[in-house]
Amino acid sequence: MDNITISADLDPMLVAAYFIAIDELREDADVTQLKLHKLLYFAQANYLASTGYRLFTSDIEAFEHGPVVEEIRPHFKQYGRQIIVSADDAVAHNATQDAKELPLDVIEFLDAIWQRFGQLSASELRQISHDDAPWEKHYDPGQLHSVIPDKEIQQWYRNDTTADRQVYHPRIFRVTDTDLDNLDAPLSEEDLAQWITSA
Question: Which has more confidence, 92 or 20?
């Protein structure tokens, strides 16, 4: 089988640029800084769960309104509750250019994240993130910069969250115990590759 490329440890601003650029294309753009942080959280969580690697280099921190990527906060907090692309045409233009720098495997993954979470409102995403055990465990109203450990996010999204919150990297094929039980006999590497590509 060919080697599978899985990109990792990207600049979080590039990932944010993707979500802003795709929002710019929509008739009813709605990505505020709150929604952007939640989309980044769900992207990082699912990337950790499906690949074992960070999508982007920044930590996720537990804030009052859910998980936040502190490193990008200074770039977007000026927009408050405004829709980012409506508030600043230059941001939308720059995001479209920056998003082109993303590797193809990441674009495919982020497309899947957008399909799963992009149509939800900021408040719906906030509620989903509040239901997650890692945020709940690490949020402390009196503490700033409470980092949610990658291992806890990875564990939650790999094993404990509901299937409707899981998005796998497009180059990762998840084989469940049920899949293995349905196999008649062990597969050779070639048979396995054929089985995966036909699924």
Answer: 20
